[in-house]
Amino acid sequence: MGQDRSADIHHERSGIVFRPGLEGVPVTQSAICDIDGLQGRLAYRGYPLEEMAAHSTFLETTYLLIWGELPSPQELRDFEAEVQMHRRVSFRVRDMMKCFPATGHPMDALQSSAASLGLFYSRRAIDDPQYVYDAVVRLIAKIPTMVAAFQLIRKGQDPIQPRDDLAYSANFLYMLTEREPDPLAARIFDRCLILHAEHSLNASTFSARVTASTLTDPYAVVASAVGTLAGPLHGGANEDVLAMLEEIGHPDRAAAFLEEAMATKRKVMGFGHREYRVKDPRAVILQSLAEEMFARFGKDEMYDVARAVEHEAATRLGPKGIYPNVDFYSGLVYRKLGIPRDLFTPVFAISRVAGWLAHWREQLGANRIFRPSQIYTGAKARSWIHGEDRAPATGA
Q1: What range does the domain containing 143 cover?
Q2: Residue pair 173/189 in contact by the 8 Å Cβ criterion
Q3: Which residues are known catalytic residues?
Q4: Dist CA 92 CA 96 (whole Å)
Q5: Mean pLDDT, to the nearest integer, of 278-290?
């Protein structure tokens, strides 16, 4: 239920204060994303998230995050055209993906595929603005294609080629489901991508900045971030939320479930966030998107369970500052869009590539390689022991 807040540890010899997980320790300066966890506010480059979700598109949001300002109409058209032009991936990438085991997790497939792009675009010229622009376009364009391709490949089918007449989000849903999406579904999915595009220095973004600080190529930066996002403590929680709701099964069982969870110290999935002490603003918008989807395409019975859990949690967890986070309603929206459960995190990655690349560019602007210190807790000076004199290392 929320993130554990470990106490600071003061090291007596060095005088250094150790904060597990770097909680509350500033490690960089950034102008990309601003979070007010007490008020439940989130802004991209100063623009409130609510306005971005209502008025922007994912590609326009991407442009803002990476280059710092909203594009002019012509700049946006040019950017959209460039992304559209680079959606296709090399047949060699597709052939490589066909060698992946069908039982492999899509996040592992995505990490490998993203890293492989560095082989095709191996020139590293991060001081060249055109190289930076081209790399941004390629990654934003090709990541969705690779996610959709692996989904079909693991089902024994050939990937579907992108359609140039479809916008970014509609094209992904088409490649994934093999049918042109309803315009409302495509718009809601696009708004979901906006909501997940950036969220300050979370684990995967920190991973991206650390990798970027070595001045490696952006494909390695994104691959490292994908690997970090794949962990269940970061990107996979929306899958677990659905499993939890299905376990509860009925709104009437929400209270008993929460009582048992609190008694056994079981984590309630989709609740709590290290940054927020109120309901995550992204969860507020996602709940409205879920209701919009259900009004048009039919209700998901698990939504009533989710509302009951949130209602019961308000009195049990709310006083502790634990409220629904972005994962609580996103899985319900994705499921209604026809996205398989184990693709929820890859879809998260499709969106968060925008934030990762924004931090990549920002890191390059005032780079210093990350090299934090540590507090050594191991054995002190010891004398060498010859092999025949050693006790078993396991103590057996």
Answers
A1: 53-231+346-365
A2: yes
A3: 273, 327
A4: 6
A5: 97
